[in-house]
Amino acid sequence: MTQPILSVQNLTMHYATRKGDVSAVDDVSFDVMQGDALGLVGESGCGKSSIANCLLRLLPENARILQGAVRLDGANLTTLPEDQMRAYRWKRIAMVFQAAMNTLDPVYRVGDQIIEALHTHIETMTNAEARERVAELFKIVGLDPALMDRYPHEYSGGMRQRAVIAMALSCNPDVIIADEPTTALDVIVQDKLLREMCNIQKTLGMGMIYISHDIAVIAEVSNRMGVMYAGRLVELADTADIFARPQHPYTYALMSAFPSITGPKRELTTLPGEPPDLLNPPPGCRFHPRCPRATSVCARDVPAFKAMDARHSVACWHPVEG
Amino acid sequence: MLKYIAIRVAQIIFTFFVFLTLIFFLLNAQPGSSLIDQFTDPNMTAEMRQAIAKSFGLDKPLHEQYLIYLGNFLTGNLGVSFSNYPRPVIEIIFERAPRTLILFLSSTTLAFTIGFTMGKILAWRRGKVTEYVATIGGVTLYTIFLPWFGLMMIWFFAFILGWFPLGKFLDPVLWRGAPFNSDVIFGQMLTTASAVVVALFIVYFISRRLDPIRRQPTQIGGALVIGAAVLAVWIPHPAARYALDILHHLILPIATLATVSFAGSMLLTRNSMLETLREDFVMAARAKGLPDNVVRDKHAARNAMLPVVTAFVFGLALAIDGGVVTETIFSWPGMGQTLLQAVSRKDIPLAIGGLIFGGSLALTAHLIADILYAYLDPRIRYS
Amino acid sequence: MTDSISTTQSLSRESGVELDLLAREERITPVPLWRVRVKLWWRSARQNAAIFADNKIGLLGLAIILLFGVMALAHPILMATVWDARTYDPITGYSFDELRQPAPPSARHLLGTDPLGRDVLSQLMYSTRNEFILGLLAALITVTIATTIGATTAYFGGVYDMIFMRVADLIIMTPAISLLIVMCALFNPDLPQLAVVIGILSGFGGTTIIIKSQALSIRVKPFIEAAKVAGGGHRHIIMTHILPNLLPFSFLYMMFGVTAAIFSEATLSFFGLLNVRMSWGIMIFTAQAAGYLLSGVEYWWLLIPAGASITLLCSAFYLVGRALDEVVNPRLRKR
Known about the structure:
CATH architecture of the largest domain in chain B: Orthogonal Bundle
Oligomer: heterotrimer
Number of helices of chain B: 17
Low-confidence stretches of chain C: 1-26
CATH class of chain C: Mainly Alpha
Structural class of chain C: mainly alpha
Number of strands of chain C: 0
Radius of gyration of chain C: 24 Å
Order of helices and strands of chain B: HHHHHHHHHHHHHHHHH
CATH topology of chain C: MetI-like fold
Shape of chain B: globular
CATH superfamily of the largest domain in chain B: MetI-like
Helix content of chain B: over 70%
Largest interface: B-C, 59 and 48 residues
CATH superfamily of chain C: MetI-like
CATH class of the largest domain in chain B: Mainly Alpha
Number of strands of chain B: 0
Helix content of chain C: over 70%
Strand content of chain C: under 5%
Strand content of chain B: under 5%
Number of domains of chain B: 3
CATH topology of the largest domain in chain B: MetI-like fold
Number of domains of chain C: 1
Number of helices of chain C: 13
Shape of chain C: elongated
Distance between the termini of chain C: 16 Å
Radius of gyration of chain B: 24 Å
């Protein structure tokens, strides 16, 4: 419990475009402990998915990791040679993709695609063993094992999503990254799957990073959560704590934009302005142009990401008093 | 799957009869209307004319002529060649068709394989220079004037370098007094080639069901055994030298035809592959930790192949036309050369026979490619 | 596929909507409608030209076509001024100055003379005009047929659609050059007749299928539905909504049609099957028939200029077609 299984330190990543560099991830640090479910929340384009891709190093050609480290077992995944990196993918960090509908290759049987992952990482595994494992995985995610010899187009959306989760679980990874895996599904299926995913994660005791723009979903699945704004992590704490005492003005604004059914009735507030253009991010705190509490220091200096207490960190010059 | 094949077969057979009908009306639509007027071969005697007129029912009304024509076709009677009198057209087709088939099959297979492989590599490693070179080179080869290109190939590889014969099917000096019939030897070579292809497929399908660590050894071992078997049959074969001569004559026409037709597949594969590479399942395949070449070949290229196969099917008729031109340039005694010779000698029955052969070849190739496509795309197979 | 097309369509549709709005405002503002139309058309033409110009390979193709165009136009002028007909006529001329025919290139005959003593450059330039006429005529017929059938089959569907699609299938599966070889032997056509046959064959064949698939994606757009709801007749919808959006694709496939037509003509005249007195194919045919096939470098001017011209002009139209493809299919553009 003391040692994190995955540790991200000062990760900074840019996309080189024709118009200049897009600062997609800037100085982001967080740890994932055994059994942790870390939620990353933020608006679209804030760099959540870029972080996920950095962890597996599945980056487009124009992406550059400028600094920082992703540590797993003492190895730094950002500098590992490509052939060694392959051994970490899926076996140690697996991923459930955003568009899970299209994650399955349409020309192969679903079971075979999972077996392919198994064979890649466990070379001595026989076909019979692999099929047995797939059947077992299908049961875990609530699919009929007989479906493993069907093709993706014969599956419904929910079934494909389950199959993708089964695929992510196949090599018993230490960490699973789930990048908005349920957005394409209808609300009922979404909710059911979400619960099941939580159960599986708790039962198997692996770490999970759950990425979503939907704070309600994060609240449901995660025990820790990080709030991202314009490529930076602005607040990181236990989920319950953040909901009780949001300290960054952006988190505060997010909470007020989120209606509570059981709590007292209150006015929903919206945040004025637009998220900044990451080609040309504002100096200092990137949130300052929209922040009601901003002062001149916010426009000048980048606030440090400092711990308010042992489990709650904020990057803000003028945190909201809890 | 069976239903799909059955429907396709029925469609193809129907199309074939429409094709036959069109040819019939084409013959009757010409100025002077009667078929017999066109048969102006000076060597033709009055009896010959009458025999032909009778066998085609030329004295009867048009619809009866049509039925006779169809009936003749179904019984394999395509008339008698004037320029090879009195050999029936069907016999000439049977003699020469295998030579055309081998040219067509090997050059299209080669062209598709090369085009697909190069296109997929071009898409995988993109670069400005390679892109320009590939596009301009590809388009030039794709639109090059084939007869001229064939002449250039002969001039350079056969005349200047002397690597290959100047054309023809075999070396008449070598074969003079040879104790073999070239068609028999060629038939044996074809049998060997088909057996090798079938055997390789069997090895491939068996190895796919094996456990992963035993797959590659089985494939390599199987290929070695097949290769050894071919050598064991052919090295002690008394006609080995003659077979080599035929092979030697085959290389340049096949290379010419493959060179002009691979570019289309290459350009298309590249475009299709660039699109496929943006698909999520390619990203997922990389995330699974698969090696780059597996991601490229097994996932990206395999999906990118589907539209390429469709376009390839559309291009089959074009490839047959290319074969006609190539055969003529290389004096390759197949159906293409036969067609042109027949046309230049006004040997209409033989020309029609050649056209019908070309049409049936195109239709059959189309059918096979359709079935292959269904095999490649499970979404068609199971719907 | 649909995405990309919707982008193009939405572009043109937006301009359509704008037009409607402007048309209604016309009562108030004195700007005449045709000026608005011209302005909009000019703007989109400029944008498309910019996209086209971005593609260097397409520009190269255009340059080659222009070069050949100049050659074709220059021939009658040269014949009327500098070249005297007795020596330089591409068909009946004879160079009495040369002792041996074919004569190598000289100041008098820049590309030498052919085995019959005729000036090769003059033949080359004279044939260029024929190739253009044949290629463009055939492509025009192809595209006219294909667009008409494509638009109507996509719109009406049903049995009408099925019949034309089966016909197209049949033509696709027919080896066209083999068929043309037999037809030429039977009918011995001249150039315009050949252009018509090629145009009909490819117009009812592959081009129809491609244009129909584009028309289908236009047919399912909301503005077609809107036009129907507004009470537009079939004719009106096809003419004013489907066709204008289909024309860019027709123009694109016309380029590929030119390539195919020139190629077919060259092949047929190379085999001496056409009732044509001079063309690039015939130039190679003449050289080959006179036995200069394997002369290679020694008599290069007999084989290289004509062969290279066919290849160059065919690829030039093809390259322009590819570049236009990027203009009408945004999906293919560089990211």
